Amino acid sequence: MAILNITYNGMSADYPLDVDHALSDRDIRRIAVEVVRSGGLRGLRIANLSDRAFDAYVVDRFDTPGSARRIYLRPKVPFGAVP
Amino acid sequence: MHEVLFLVGKSNVILWSDASNSPVSLPDSRARWEAIWSRRDLIVEIAHSHPKGPLAFSHEDGTTMAALVTALGRRLRFSVVAPAGMVRADVKAVTAGRAPAVPVATLVREEPWWAPLLRLASGMNERTPLQEK
User: Fold this and answer.
1) Deepest in the core among A50, B10, B59, B101, taking most CB within 10 A?
2) In angstroms, rounded to a whole number, what is the distance separating the alpha carbons of residues B66 and A34?
3) Are the beta carbons of B40 and A10 separated by less than 8 Å?
4) What DSSP letter does each residue of A20-35 carry, written as one string?
């Protein structure tokens, strides 16, 4: 069991993930697209969301003792004169 | 020298800042994202320095700007402060998940009070005159 937090369009919401195996960052992004398309997050349903909507997002994972793993899908925030 | 970032609010108030150890990059940081998210209703502009230039947004800057307006769901102003001057760009929020193109930056003729401070914090010398073509 894990909790996926998605931040998009000014909203941040949790979505329970009933998985018992490790998910790659690519898996997380793909799941997030489908969750938003299907309206799985309250107040955030975008049926025509691009497949690449979360390409510029990063995944943060946190294990908290005694509770579900927390997974945060958030925008990347690096800046710089060179990549 | 190192890159420095300011979160700027109304009336040019500096809300938060951080810095890297490099003159050419400001690596990704969850703390920076949390600072932005927690101040999302206050932020007017996100400025960072390019101590060694260029006086322009990089590709990395552009993709980060697009990701941020997508996440925040609103227009934001971004700027780069370099030795030769300052450029700005207003980036619109997206709908339906399509990332916006990186806008053309405009040269800032009258810099805000914090631009020299950003240069100083980045280890730049005083502003060097822009060579007019």
Assistant:
1) A50
2) 21
3) yes
4) -S---HHHHHHHHHHH
d(CA B61, CA B28): 11
Residue in A with minimal Cα distance to B92: A9
The distance of A64 to chain B (nearest Cα, Å) reads 17
Q: Read off the pLDDT of residues B30-76 as tens digits, 9 standing for 90 and up.
A: 999 999 999 999 999 999 999 999 999 999 999 999 999 999 999 99
Query: C-alpha distances in angstroms, B53 versus A11, B1, B18, B58?
Result: 35, 12, 19, 10
Residue pLDDT, tens place only, A53-75? 999 999 999 987 777 889 999 99
Left if phi > 0, otherwise alpha if psi is -120 to 50, otherwise beta: which for B128? beta
Read off the amino acid at residue B58: S
**Residue given tokens 């990059």 in the structure block:** B25
Closest to B48 measured CA to CA, from B21, B106, B8: B8
